[in-house]
Specification:
This protein is of the alpha+beta class. Mean pLDDT is about 85; it is low at about 455-460 and about 500-510.
Length: about 625
């Protein structure tokens, strides 16, 4: 088959071919499919790890080193070139014993010989580095393209004219148009506005200054932070690159944190003021009641004292609101159903909101129990009802509803302060004037009110917020101008069982006694008032100004002490520690704690949490006397 030898190259070409980095070759394909390399330069040893002699008569060693996946393609390419007598160009891989997988590229021109065979004259070179670079670029482009398609942040590239040349896919959602309509345009062409012109000015400053900048912008009610930086290309105009992050949720959380910190600071102040006020109000109302006992109904001075007492009672209510807002009031939680609270307060609510407003309720028959202070939840409902009433001056409807709900982890994450799990839901909905977003953002802040001067303290919803939070619940508000307001209050389901309250045996004369009572109170005016009220009813009263003084006094007092009345929070030694030390030597002594708030959670944990009797300041004379009688006669510590 190889009897007819093709023309050989000139000696000069042969010598030059020995020094070329690739392979000069002649490849001959016979009609019966046999193939050989009549000529192959010395480079074939490096390129295919075969010698020219090995392929001179038979091309099989050449085809043997072709990569298995590319072998068929190489054969097809030679066949197609021979059939059409068109130039042969092919890129293929070889799998060499020593070098491993390498890339080759061949170019050759065919000619038909007299015997019907085809002879190619060509050149094969190593393109491994080029192909690896291309593959790396292709992989990089695939990664970049995938990133731009699925990036959670907004990525952009602009040319020196501030026209978009590459954008991440999420820009379609942000700007509300296809990427193709955005590319090639400036922001001012897309959205002519002062904001767009400001963006362009920032872009130009980055390109001119060559430095990274960070800006914060608001677009369509959402907030974004953008970092822009130049891409410097030697000898070419710079590009602008950057990425944008939606920080709306972060801004909202920052605002919630700011509000929480503000309310916490005001709450601490309000709680401290209320604590001091409670002592003062206790004295004012207490002595007013004592004075009234001395004035018969027809005494012309009696109305003046009654006005003092009324003012004291109003001040007492205000301090309770302050304590509720600051979450330092003393709660007395019980296992209850919100249904019982709602149905029990309906009559009062109807009188409170008036006849022009229709009151309806819908309760879940099998509502889960919650652990709350019933009186405080009543306060929550009344405050919400009053707020709704004021939003419907010309009438409307107010509805109360209860339901069982299970809050998801996602809900808790989206609603700061909420906790996942089963809850009993109380919904209060009105058809009032509603509120705009600005009002909603401040509605739970203390002393914020939309009412005219003298018509409200601004503590109503702040009080609701405080009670709900202190009760372990979560409150959510939904409103719009002209569409009414819906407030949802969630209280965690309790695993404790409801226990029916036992009726106490009636006390024959709850206002009198002969027992010995030790009063320990650091506020002298309160201490003297308690002593005056109790001694006036026949009790023998001993008084001291604090825990340490009380211990010294009791060491020298040999007589009986039937009841200890002590403030919980006092300097040097609190009432809980003092009572424990005193009971260690006087085990039969009863204890009644009193205070105006639950600061440091000591009352909740050490007093109410352990079932000890408690009297909240400010208290009325009758409340004190009934409580003293109850504790002395109840037989409990």
């Amino acid at each position: 088959m190889a009897s007819e030898k093709p023309p050989q190259g000139h000696d000069l070409i042969a010598k030059l071919s020995e020094h070329l980095p690739g392979v000069l070759f002649q490849f001959r394909l016979f009609p019966d499919g046999h193939a050989c390399f009549p000529f192959a330069s010395r480079g074939v040893r490096e390129m295919f790890e075969v010698s020219p002699e090995q392929v001179l008569e038979d091309a099989s060693p050449f085809f043997a080193v072709l990569h298995p996946e590319d072998r068929g393609g190489a054969v097809v390419s030679f066949t197609d070139s021979a059939r059409a007598l068109k130039p042969w160009h092919h890129e293929f891989r070889v799998a060499l014993p020593k070098q491993g997988v390498r890339w080759r590229m061949g170019d050759a021109l065919p000619e038909r010989l007299a015997d019907g065979s085809t002879l190619w004259h060509g050149f094969i070179m190593d393109i491994t580095d080029r192909r690896r670079t291309e593959e790396a670029l292709e992989e990089s482009e695939d990664i970049f393209r995938s990133f731009m398609e699925h990036s959670p942040i907004y990525v952009f590239f602009k040319n020196h004219e501030i026209r978009a040349i590459r954008l991440s896919r999420n820009y379609e959602k942000m700007l509300g148009m296809p990427i193709d309509e955005i590319l090639g345009k400036t922001m001012d062409e897309l959205f002519p506005s002062e904001l767009a012109r400001s963006m362009i000015e920032d872009d130009l400053n980055v390109l001119k200054g060559g430095k990274l900048i960070e800006v914060e912008e608001e677009l369509a009610g959402r907030f974004y932070t953008t970092i822009k930086f130049p891409i410097i290309k030697q000898g070419k105009p710079p590009l602008l690159a950057g990425f944008t992050i939606d920080i709306t949720e972060r801004k909202n959380l920052e605002e919630q944190l700011r509000l929480a910190q503000k309310m916490e600071a005001v709450g601490q102040l309000a709680g401290g003021i209320a604590h001091d006020f409670n002592n003062l109000i206790t004295v004012i109302t207490g002595y007013s009641e004592l004075l009234l006992l001395k004035f018969p109904p027809d005494n012309p001075e009696r109305p003046k004292v009654e006005e003092i007492l009324k003012a004291g009672n109003r001040a007492s209510q205000l301090t309770r609101q302050l304590l509720a807002f600051s979450r330092k009031q003393v709660l007395q939680p019980k296992v209850v159903s919100l249904n019982d609270i709602v149905t029990g307060i309906e009559g009062m609510l109807q009188r409170l909101i008036g006849e022009k407003i229709l009151l309806t309720s819908a309760t879940e028959p099998r509502l889960w129990n919650v652990l709350v202070d019933p009186s405080q939840i009543e306060q929550v409902i009344m405050n919400l009802a009053v707020n709704s009433r004021d939003a419907m001056p010309h009438g409307g409807s107010l509805s109360l509803a209860t339901a069982n709900v299970v809050l998801s982890e996602a809900f808790a994450q989206d609603h700061k302060g909420a906790s996942p799990g089963p809850h009993a839901l109380l919904t209060v909905r009105d058809t009032g004037c509603g509120m705009d977003e600005e009002t909603i953002s401040h509605v739970f802040e203390p002393f914020f009110t939309t009412k005219e001067a003298g018509k409200g303290t601004g503590l109503g919803l702040a009080t609701v917020y405080g009670i709900v939070k202190q009760s372990g619940g979560y409150i959510d508000l939904e409103s719009a101008v002209g569409k009414g307001t819906t407030i949802r209050v969630y209280f965690p389901r309790t695993s404790e069982e409801w226990v029916e309250a036992r009726e106490e045996d009636p006390i024959a004369d709850p206002l009198k006694g002969t027992e010995t009572v030790l009063v320990v109170e650091d506020e002298r005016s309160v201490r003297d008032l308690v002593a005056s009220v109790l001694s006036g009813k026949g009790y023998k009263v001993l008084t001291v100004g604090g825990g340490i003084a009380g211990l010294r006094f009791c060491e020298g007092h040999e007589g009986r002490i039937d009841l200890l009345i002590t403030d919980v929070i006092m300097p040097e030694m609190g009432g809980v520690e003092f009572s424990a030390r005193l009971k260690a030597v006087r085990p039969g002594m009863k204890v009644l704690f009193m205070s105006g708030n639950a600061e440091d959670a000591e009352i909740q944990k050490e007093v109410l949490g352990k079932g000890h009797p408690f009297l909240q300041k400010p208290f009325k004379q009758k409340e004190l006397l009934l409580k003293v009688r109850e504790v002395i006669g109840a037989g409990r510590d």
